[in-house]
């Protein structure tokens, strides 16, 4: 008989407010992207992360308009 | 990583509020500690000492905002010398179970308009507030940051303004991170509409009557072809309407349009008459120039005119070999005189030639200096002219022919811009004066230079002074030019607007500039359209985030509401009026309501819901404040809570619930609970109920304000009471000895009860408590305690104690001192052996 091995199961962390907020936002929307950018950055760089996210979206829109897709 | 709750192991206070110079220490080795003291003995000072240790402040000052001035010098005990340190320190077990030491020293007490300041140390090392978080001592959001409930904080939630209450709960629920996120997102709106110079031009142009057709370009993605076509069409329309043939190519059409515009505009006012230029730089001539001039004059004086003329002849003679290499006198090759050129004379000729070489060099440098100075003087004249506007440069004849007149300018601009014209006029007058002065100075310098060139031997000190004096005049011209340019710009801008309207050329210039760079127009239009789309998306994102945030908040409120309800039920079980919910007011998210359920039935069925403020009694509000505080502590995982008189003294029923169920729930949560109470019954009951948890009992008293509050540990109650009764034992007064006997009998009863309960618990009866033996006399207790004695002599000694002390409670003989001392000694030994 193989000796049974107990594997400790880590206690899951309670969901943060941002985790909860994320579940309530529609996938693919700008809101979701901004939240992702905000939570991925450390506190001092959050505004820069949001700006970068917005700039990236602006570039996408520019490309769409230039190609006549919009 | 913090995994275990923080525990307070000891607290030391000195100099803080009611505490004196002698440090007071509370050694806490239990999950429950109770401090008893009558009013005004230092309980609240003790609670605030812990608050000060954790936050560096006392929140009472903030809550009594109107009385902040009155808190000046309030943290230091008023009876202590100024130099006395005010320090609160604690030993804790941090979130990892490690012992840590925290100390906070007051460095500046509250002043009338100024916060206090303090120094925080952790393990003897200077620390900042955030370092407490790393220990697991995370604090709540202000104002109720510390896990300390006092009377003033208990009432805060019901007296706070709705907005403050909402902010408080949002802080408690720790959703301020979502608020910060929302604020950051809304701040992005301002960054989308970034200024774009080309789009600005386009808007100005396309809003003009002649170019409104260009607005249609904004309605769909722009390409070079569509933009070119729109510009070609607009230009052709204007030219045709003006009777000008439209050229085939756009650049030609733009050029034709430009000519037409200038023609029209100049008919209104000769705007080319403006144009103040910036003054060019000019530097005072280098000092070396004057040195060169001086050296030139010195050489002129040293080498005579005759010598300079003979130099070439001397060179020729010296070049002859018979002269150059002769060491004896030779015939003169010029006049033929015999032996005329002796070696001494040849040497003299050589020195004359050398002198003349130095002269030539000095002459060359001196003349170069004169030329440089002449150029410098000329450049001043040019600078004085160059800065002037065209209307001044071209002279009065031009101004007359073009009707460049100030009164006409005033008429065109109207009275609204009269001030602009006045300022411009004033600045131009100053500029002209400055230019004239500099021109005169430059002319004088040029005249002096001319004279010096004619006769280089003349002194030139005046010339040098004239150059030196030109620098301030040149600086004055530069300043006048700057002011005139600044005054001219708004005049020209306004004039262009007026001229454009008068000549019906509004937007033409912008059109020409845009037409010269259509690629930029395409980029600007598409960029603008993309930004518009992004603005719409961002507004939609903000709405989505708002909705999601409210849902998160509702969930968090529901969690907290459930927790409050649980604590409420422990405090006030079975009441038909009960706490129902904590919720955001629908339609007014900045308002948080406490809702009460009013049921006609004991099972709380069919309740009517009302605001608690309107329907709860003072006692109920008090309990709700406590329930909210405990729910918050639970929510935030506080390792310990400090409760300063959490139950009204008159509220016996709820005091019992608090003592029996709330403290038990806190201690098993597991959460360390420190209760400060003025109610001796609460103190005693807690001591009895939680003896099995080794509850720590303290007393606090303030008999001498200068000495400050004194804290004594009284968990070993029997011993402390024996100590208290000791002075009475040998007293000659029978009444006093009678009182002593009564105290000893009470102590003996207490001792027996504690031995019995301890024994029962050791035998596995965890429910055994002191109150099980209420109303039992020493006679009743004697047979019950005997099984727990381990010394065979002790049953006998207890019987002697009972017999010896019993008369003290009756009308019989009062025990003598010897009996009292013996009984007291035996009781102390019992306590030593069995407790």
Structure, described:
The complex is a heterodimer of chains A (70) and B (835). By secondary structure, chain A is an all-alpha fold. Chain A has helices at residues 17-23, 30-40, 46-66. The longest helix of chain A is centred in the C-terminal third of the chain and has 21 residues, at 46-66. Chain A is flat. In chain B, a hairpin with a 2-residue loop joins β9 (577-585) and β10. Chain B contains 30 helices and 15 strands. Chain B is α/β, with parallel strands linked by helices. In chain B, the strands form 3 sheets. Chain B has a 6-stranded antiparallel sheet with strand order 2-1-4-5-6-7. A 6-stranded mixed sheet of chain B has the order 8-12-13-3-14-15, with helices on both faces. The longest helix of chain B is centred in the middle third of the chain and has 54 residues, at 518-571. Classes of the chains: A mainly alpha (70), B alpha/beta (835). Chain A binds chain B through residues 17-18, 20-21, 24-26, 29-31, 34-35, 38, 46-47, 50-51, 54, 57-58, 61-62, 64-70, and chain B through 174-175, 177-178, 181, 184-185, 187-188, 191-192, 221-223, 526-527, 529-531, 533-534, 537-538, 540-542, 544-545, 547-549, 551-552, 555-556.
**Major sheet characteristics of chain A:** none
The average pLDDT of chain B is 86
Radius of gyration of chain A equals: 20 Å
Using DSSP, what is the number of strands of chain A? 0
Low-confidence stretches of chain B: none
**What overall geometry of chain B do the principal axes of the alpha carbons give?**
elongated
Biggest chain pair interface:
A-B, 29 and 35 residues
What separation lies between the terminal Cα atoms of chain B?
A: 39 Å
Percent helix range of chain B: 55-70%
Proportion of helical residues of chain A: 55-70%
């Amino acid at each position: 008989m193989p000796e049974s091995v107990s594997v400790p199961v880590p206690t899951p962390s309670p969901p943060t407010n941002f985790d909860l907020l994320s579940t309530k936002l529609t996938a693919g929307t700008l809101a979701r992207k901004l939240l992702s950018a905000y939570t991925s950055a450390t506190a001092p760089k959050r505004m820069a992360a949001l700006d970068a996210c917005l700039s990236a979206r602006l570039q996408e829109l520019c490309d769409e308009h230039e190609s006549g897709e919009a | 990583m913090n995994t275990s709750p923080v525990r307070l192991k000891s607290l030391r206070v000195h100099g803080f509020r009611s505490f004196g110079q002698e440090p007071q220490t509370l050694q806490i080795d239990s999950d429950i500690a109770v401090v008893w003291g009558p009013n005004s003995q230092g309980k609240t000072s003790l609670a605030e000492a812990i608050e000060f240790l954790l936050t560096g402040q006392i929140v009472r000052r903030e809550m009594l905002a109107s009385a902040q001035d009155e808190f000046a010098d309030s943290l230091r005990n008023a009876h202590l010398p100024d130099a006395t340190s005010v320090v609160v320190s604690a030993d804790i077990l941090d979130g990892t179970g490690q012992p840590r030491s925290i100390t906070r020293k007051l460095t500046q007490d509250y002043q009338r308009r100024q916060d206090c300041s303090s120094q925080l140390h952790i393990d003897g090392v200077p620390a900042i507030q955030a370092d407490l978080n790393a220990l697991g001592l995370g604090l709540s959001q202000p104002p109720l940051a510390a896990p300390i409930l006092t009377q003033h904080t208990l009432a805060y939630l019901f007296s706070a303004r709705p907005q403050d209450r909402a902010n408080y709960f949002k802080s408690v629920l720790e959703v301020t991170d979502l608020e910060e996120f929302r604020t950051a997102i809304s701040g992005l709106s301002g960054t989308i509409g970034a200024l774009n110079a080309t789009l600005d031009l386009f808007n100005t142009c396309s809003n003009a009557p002649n170019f409104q057709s260009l607005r249609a370009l904004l309605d769909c993605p722009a390409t070079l072809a569509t933009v070119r076509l729109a510009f070609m069409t607009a230009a052709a329309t204007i030219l045709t309407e003006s009777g000008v043939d439209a050229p085939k190519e756009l650049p030609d059409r733009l050029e034709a349009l430009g000519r037409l515009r200038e023609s029209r505009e100049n008919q209104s006012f000769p705007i080319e008459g403006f144009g103040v230029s910036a003054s060019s730089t000019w530097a005072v001539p280098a000092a070396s120039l004057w040195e060169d001039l001086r050296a030139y004059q010195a050489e002129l004086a040293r080498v005579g005119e005759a010598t300079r003329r003979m130099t070439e002849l001397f060179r020729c003679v010296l070049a002859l070999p018979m002269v150059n290499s002769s060491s004896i006198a030779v015939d003169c090759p010029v006049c033929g005189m015999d032996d005329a050129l002796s070696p001494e004379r040849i040497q003299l000729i050589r020195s004359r030639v050398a002198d003349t070489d130095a002269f030539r060099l000095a002459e060359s440098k001196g003349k170069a200096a004169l030329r440089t100075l002449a150029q410098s003087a000329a450049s001043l004249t040019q600078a004085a002219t160059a800065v002037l506007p065209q209307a001044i440069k071209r002279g009065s004849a031009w101004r007359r022919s073009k009707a460049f007149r100030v009164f006409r300018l005033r008429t065109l601009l109207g009275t609204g811009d009269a001030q602009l014209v006045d300022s411009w006029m004033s600045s131009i007058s100053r500029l002209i004066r400055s230019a004239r002065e500099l021109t005169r100075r430059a002319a004088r310098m040029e005249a002096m230079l001319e004279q010096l060139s004619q006769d280089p031997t003349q002194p030139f000190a005046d010339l040098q002074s004239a150059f030196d004096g030109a620098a301030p005049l040149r600086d004055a011209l530069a300043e006048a030019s700057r002011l005139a340019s600044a005054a001219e710009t708004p005049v020209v801008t306004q004039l262009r607007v007026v001229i454009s309207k008068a000549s019906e050329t509004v937007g033409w210039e912008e059109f020409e500039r845009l037409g010269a760079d259509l690629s930029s127009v395409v980029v600007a239009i598409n960029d603008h359209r993309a930004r518009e789309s992004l603005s719409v998306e961002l507004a939609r994102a903000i709405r989505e985030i708002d909705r999601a945030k409210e849902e998160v908040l509702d969930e968090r409120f529901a969690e907290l509401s459930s927790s409050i309800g649980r604590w409420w039920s422990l405090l006030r079980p079975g009441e038909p009026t009960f706490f129902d919910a904590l919720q955001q007011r629908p339609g007014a998210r900045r308002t948080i309501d406490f809702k009460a359920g009013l049921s006609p039935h004991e099972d709380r069925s069919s309740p009517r819901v009302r605001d608690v403020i309107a329907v709860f009694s003072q006692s109920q509000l008090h309990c709700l404040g406590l329930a909210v505080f405990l729910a918050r502590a639970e929510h935030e995982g506080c390792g310990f809570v400090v409760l300063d008189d959490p139950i009204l003294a008159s509220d016996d029923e709820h005091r019992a619930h608090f003592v029996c169920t709330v403290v038990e729930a806190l201690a098993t949560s597991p959460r360390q609970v420190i209760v400060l109470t003025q109610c001796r019954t609460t103190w005693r009951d807690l001591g009895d109920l939680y003896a099995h948890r080794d509850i720590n009992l303290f007393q606090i008293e303030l008999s001498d304000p200068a000495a400050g509050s004194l804290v004594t540990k009284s968990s070993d109650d029997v011993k402390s009471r024996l100590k208290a009764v000791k002075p009475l034992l040998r007293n000659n007064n029978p009444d006093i000895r009678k009182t002593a006997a009564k105290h000893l009998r009470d102590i003996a009863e207490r001792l027996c009860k504690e031995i019995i309960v301890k024994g029962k618990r050791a035998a596995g009866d965890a429910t055994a408590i002191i109150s099980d033996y209420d109303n039992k006399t020493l006679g009743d207790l004697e047979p019950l305690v005997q099984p727990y004695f381990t010394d065979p002599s002790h049953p006998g000694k207890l019987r002697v104690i009972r017999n010896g002390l019993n008369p003290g409670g009756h009308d019989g003989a009062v025990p003598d001192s010897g009996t009292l001392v013996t009984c007291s000694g035996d009781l102390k030994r019992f306590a030593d052996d069995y407790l």
